Prior knowledge:
By secondary structure, the protein is an alpha/beta fold. It has 4 domains: about 1-105; about 105-275, Heat Shock Protein 90, CATH 3.30.565; about 280-415, 3-Layer(aba) Sandwich (Rossmann fold), CATH 3.40.50.2300; about 425-535, Orthogonal Bundle (Arc Repressor Mutant, subunit A). Helix content is about 50%, strand content about 15%. The chain contains 21 helices and 14 strands. The protein has a 6-stranded mixed β-sheet with strand order 6-7-5-4-2-9, with helices on one face. Helix 4 runs antiparallel to helix 5, helix 5 packs across helix 9 (about 225-235) and helix 8 (about 150-165) packs antiparallel against helix 9. The N and C termini lie far apart (about 70 Å). The model is unreliable at about 1-35 and about 280-285 (pLDDT under 50). Adenosine-5'-diphosphate (ADP) binds near residues 164, 224, 225 and 227.
Amino acid sequence: MRYFSIILFIIFSNFQVVAGLNYIQSDTVNQNLSDKAKLSFFTGISHEFRTPLTLIQSPLETLIKKQSENSETKNVYELMLSNTNKLKNLINQILDLRKLDDNELQINIQNLDVVKYVNDLINSFEHYCNKYNCNLYYNSNYSSAYISFDFQKFEIMLSNLISNAFKYNVDNGDIIITLVITDKIMKIEVKDTGIGIPDEAQNEIFNRYSRLTEYYDYREGSGIGLAYVKEMAELLNGSLSLESKHHQGSVFSLNFNIGYAKIVNEKPCSLQIKSNNAVKNIDYINNTTNDKEHTLLLVDDNEELINYMHSIFINNYNILIAKNGNEAIQIAESEIPDLIISDVMMPEMDGFELCTLLKNNRITNHIPVILLSAKNNNKAIIDGYNTGADDYISKPFNSDILELKVQNLLILKEKLRNKFSFNIDTEKTIYKNSDQEFINNCIEIINKNIQNPAFTAIKLSDELNLTQRTFYRKIKALTNKTPGDFVKSYKMEFAALLLKKQNLKIYEVASEVGYEDVVSFSNTFKKYHGELPSKFN
Length: 537
Ligand code: ADP
């Protein structure tokens, strides 16, 4: 849905130009018009989208046929095609509603086996079970029953209810679809164990373009689906009803007078599609080889967008994936990636909260974060920077620009860490506060132990309460030095200062910085400063 809104937005933006509306900048549209007004304007020109969409869809289908199995390009084309289809479905629904308003909508009756029809439709949702980690159950009181009905509209209605049941469900939730046919009536129920709808909002959701963004704003959508289902149900002499409890789940029921049903097989039937858990897919990606210089962590609950970003970066970076904020924190702490790109709209913990947590965590606060968001108004951008984000990119994004931003942030970090020096006597700092604080903390611990020959970088990581690996990655990211070099360099700087400013003998200075053996001290000193300690006296 999110990706589809990206394409929607691309096409919408292009149309401002085509339709001679280029004086309406997308920013202004976003900011000045309410969602409702924006979409009703959109309704007016929806039919203009059909031809260009067909001209995207057909060549894409041709291109897909030409690609060999499993090629990277084929995956990208398939992503484009599936989102073009989503966009087409949405536009068809908008146009149907428009025709309904103008009394021009036609009803197309077919006589088909409704049990099988619903069964086939449900099977087409199999990939949703993995994507949303939910189980799907279907029960019908008969195994085969023929009815005369507008199956085209029925399919769109039912698809809307089922995709909402996934979209507004919880992790590891259930969706139960029950079809009951009697002589005169067909009733189909779509029940979910999801987030439910508060009492006070239960009427509102059937209005066109109405969305409950104040309760859960990370799921993108258009607010067309339920209005379509309700209005079409009424057109087909039926009704749509809802029973729901906030935080417990919802049941949407469609009831139709069908006049007559020809029952072919009276036995009840059922179908189950269990999720085989999308995590597998993510693990697979996270296990790829670590042969590139920099590692990126991509955070998004939308698998399609993750796959797309993965395809952009995989050739030049090691890639880690997290599908929500909690996972991102865990991976960031254990792997210490060089940069994090996170979506803003995610369930449980949004990108703003994630960024705030990362920037307030001493292990991860040095890692640059880029936030990606569909919201491109000034307030959203300012909110993003206020969380400490290093960059904010609005969707739809240009992949070249995203790549360049990543490159630039990494180069900036690289320059900074290559400039690292202890500046023992000048106190000059090139770091932001949290990074300087970390380095100061390390120096304080080294200072306390500086005369102890048994003090090592391992002891330093212990004192900081960090694993050796975490400390290695953190100090390397900040200073481009290994922990051992970091400790040694500090000692050598301190030794030079002592030699210059205090009237100490070389063996005394060696002992001051934890060297029992003067020769070894002198050698290390020469390697570091290029001169023997005697030159500094
Ligand atoms: P969309 O999903 O594109 O926002 P819909 O018209 O399908 O539009 O739904 C309208 C609103 O009703 C949704 O934005 C959501 O807030 C709420 N809603 C729909 N289905 C469910 C559901 N199964 N559980 C909880 N909320 C739902």
